[in-house]
Automatic annotation (TrEMBL):
Its main location: membrane. This is Predicted arabinose efflux permease, MFS family. GO terms for cellular component: plasma membrane. Coiled coil: none annotated. InterPro entries: MFS (IPR011701), MFS_dom (IPR020846), MFS_trans_sf (IPR036259). Residues 154-421 form the Major facilitator superfamily (MFS) profile domain. The keyword Membrane applies. Keywords: Cell membrane, Membrane, Transmembrane, Transmembrane helix. It is found in: Cell membrane. The lineage of its organism: Bacteria, Bacillati, Actinomycetota, Actinomycetes, Micrococcales. It comes from the Bacteria. The chain crosses the membrane at residues 21-41, 47-67, 79-100, 106-130, 223-244, 256-278, 285-303, 309-332, 344-366, 372-392. One of its GO terms (molecular function) is transmembrane transporter activity. It comes from Microbacterium paraoxydans.
Length: 421
């Protein structure tokens, strides 16, 4: 058996953290899909249902950066408790209102805003806490394990939530409430002090803009964040192009669902071999080869729209995602000073969310007004440029092997250190 893996799961606080984060993801995924169904079920109006989703998304975006400040100012264990308790109150209250027949459209909009605020405020908390729990040695492996779990949850959440909703619309909300309450119990089981370092380092470190100012100084984290945002943007654009183009050609919905399932299976397959990849290759090689593999896989979309072929393309393109994100995300977390890790990661999350929101719009516009080949070709060209940038980038070239992560130190935070850089 692989000793590092055994060592990771012997960390008691990591097991508690993993259980809590798993319950969080279950609650978020099942609850989000149920919220989508409930919007139309209550209003019987597609516009209002869409408005409810938009309100939640806007509230989440608005609260993401303040959430980074919270993660940098307070004990992450306490924040996990607040997160779980707040979400429990929202989902329990929502299910109670539905069961008692008091749920109105206005109330649903207000609850959607509250749910979005809670998600945004606490979204980065567990990610910020993870390096404090597992240390540098196990961070990449822990990240890969977490992302594999997230992929499995996302794959199962929609059908499970839909099945529960079909039995009774309150059931997925109750499941989400119970799961988020379990997050509170898991947080209480963590013994390690998860308070951020350097809370007294001055107003500049405590300010909302501290993460942005730090990123403005250091090119390496800017490059790493930019690369992953571009990759995820292109994945979103290509994925939406696949779905919409298949609909245009009259492909049955169940076959389109099969393509989506194969993409999820590809993510899980990549997660299954992530440990071996992390041991065998350097971080720089994993990042560069992963982006190249994604680019080459999507290039095949230019020559076929056959459902079986596109399903295989989606599988292959999705396989590198967990190794890529585990290496890039772990290394990025290690070079960010602990005092501002929450703000930098929340800014990265916000940029990713904005890019993810723009990707379907680009795909739809290109497919409608420029045709299939440009709809595939534009994100493919961006991916190819990203692959070249990764191959030439010093920031990527500095990512070591996982076994050398113990030697990675955060980039300086103080004004004096920045001036000397």
């Amino acid at each position: 058996m692989n000793p590092p893996r055994l060592g990771l799961w012997r960390v008691r606080d990591y097991r508690a953290w993993f259980a809590g984060d798993t319950l969080t993801q279950v609650g978020l995924s099942i609850g989000a899909f149920a919220f989508t169904l409930l919007g139309y079920y209550v209003t019987s109006d597609a516009f209002l249902a869409g408005l409810i989703g938009t309100v939640s998304a806007v509230a989440r975006a608005v609260s993401t950066l303040p959430g980074g400040v919270l993660a940098d100012r307070f004990d992450a264990r306490r924040l996990m408790i607040w997160s779980g308790a707040s979400a429990f109150a929202i989902y329990a209250g929502l299910s109670a209102m539905y069961v008692t027949g008091t749920l109105t459209t206005a109330a649903l909009i207000v609850i959607a805003a509250g749910e979005g605020l809670v998600v945004g405020l606490f979204f980065t908390v567990t990610d910020v806490a993870l390096p404090r729990i597992v240390g540098k040695r196990f961070l990449a492996e822990a990240s890969a394990a977490n992302q594999s779990r997230d992929a499995a949850i996302r794959l199962a959440a929609a059908p499970v939530s839909g099945l529960l909703f079909g039995v009774h619309p309150s059931l997925p909300l109750i499941v989400s409430a119970v799961a988020r309450l379990g997050e509170v119990g898991s947080a209480l089981a963590i013994r390690k002090d998860l308070s951020p370092e350097g809370l007294g380092d001055g107003a500049g470190v405590r300010s909302l803009a501290a993460g942005r100012r730090w990123l403005a100084v250091w090119r390496q984290p800017r490059t790493l964040i930019g690369l992953i945002v571009l990759v995820n943007f292109c994945l979103g654009a290509c994925g939406m192009t696949i779905v919409l183009s298949q609909q245009q050609t009259g492909t049955p919905a169940w076959q389109i669902g099969t393509i989506q399932t194969m993409q999820g299976a590809g993510v899980l397959a990549g997660g299954a071999v992530a440990g071996w990849i992390l041991r065998r290759y350097s971080g720089r090689a994993i990042v560069r080869l992963s982006i190249c593999m994604i680019t080459l896989a999507f290039t095949a979309l230019l020559v076929t729209q056959s459902v079986p072929a596109v399903a295989v393309i989606g599988f292959v393109a999705s396989m590198p995602l967990i190794p890529l994100n585990a290496v890039q995300g772990s290394y990025l977390a290690l070079i960010i000073p602990d005092q501002i890790r929450g703000r930098v990661l929340s800014l990265s999350s916000l940029l990713g969310a904005l890019a993810g929101g723009a990707a379907p719009l680009l795909a739809g516009a290109l497919l409608e007004y420029a045709g299939y080949y440009l709809a595939v070709g534009v994100p493919l060209a961006i991916l190819a440029g990203t692959a070249v940038a990764a191959a030439l980038s010093r920031a990527v070239g500095a990512i070591p092997r996982r076994s050398e992560f113990d030697q990675v130190e955060p980039l300086p935070l103080s004004a004096g250190a920045i001036a000397d850089a």
